[in-house]
C-alpha cells in the first residue's frame, strides 16, 4: 500500500509529570489499559507491549456496552528511551511520538499518517481525546 501521499496529523499535550513517569505510564500494559480510549463509554480491557525495535504491541479498545471492539496494533521501528517511539501499523501507516523532558513537565508530540476512510478532523479529534485521557490519567496518579 502506497503511504507516500498520506496526510500527517499531529496532536500534542503537556503532561504535568516528569518524563520517567510519563514514559512508564505510556508503555506499561497495566497503565495502558487505564487510558487508551477516547471517551468514557469505551475502555481498553487488554494491552501487551514489547517496547524494542521490531517488538510488537496490541491494545484492545472496546465499547463498554460490548457493541464494538478492535485491536490497535503495530511494530516498533525506533525506540529511544524517554525520547522517541516510532512504529508502523499493519496498513502501512507510520506513527512517531516525541517526549520532551521539561523537568516536572513532559511535552508529548504525536504525529501519525491519516487513514483515507475518515475525515482528517475526526481522526485528529479522536487521537487528541486519547492523548488528553492519558494526560488526565498520569496527572491523577
TrEMBL record:
Occurrences of domain Activator of Hsp90 ATPase homologue 1/2-like C-terminal (ranges): 16-139
InterPro entries hit by this protein: ASHA1/2-like_C (IPR013538), START-like_dom_sf (IPR023393)
Domain of life assignment: Bacteria
Pfam family for this entry, one: AHSA1
Similarity comment text for this entry: Belongs to the AHA1 family.
Annotated protein name in UniProt: Polyketide cyclase
Amino acid at each position: 500500500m502506497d503511504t507516500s501521499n498520506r496526510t500527517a496529523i499531529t496532536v500534542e499535550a503537556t503532561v504535568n509529570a516528569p518524563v520517567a513517569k510519563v514514559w512508564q505510564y505510556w508503555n506499561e500494559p497495566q497503565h495502558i489499559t487505564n487510558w487508551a480510549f477516547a471517551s468514557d463509554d469505551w475502555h481498553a480491557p487488554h494491552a501487551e507491549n514489547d517496547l524494542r525495535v521490531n517488538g510488537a504491541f496490541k491494545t484492545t479498545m472496546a465499547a463498554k456496552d460490548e457493541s464494538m471492539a478492535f485491536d490497535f496494533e503495530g511494530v516498533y521501528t525506533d525506540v529511544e528511551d524517554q525520547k522517541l517511539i516510532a512504529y508502523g501499523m499493519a496498513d502501512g501507516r507510520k506513527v512517531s511520538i516525541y517526549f520532551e523532558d521539561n523537568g516536572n513537565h513532559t511535552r508529548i508530540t504525536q504525529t501519525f499518517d491519516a487513514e483515507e476512510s475518515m475525515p482528517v478532523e475526526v481522526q485528529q479529534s479522536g487521537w487528541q481525546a486519547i492523548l488528553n485521557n492519558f494526560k488526565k490519567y498520569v496527572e491523577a496518579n
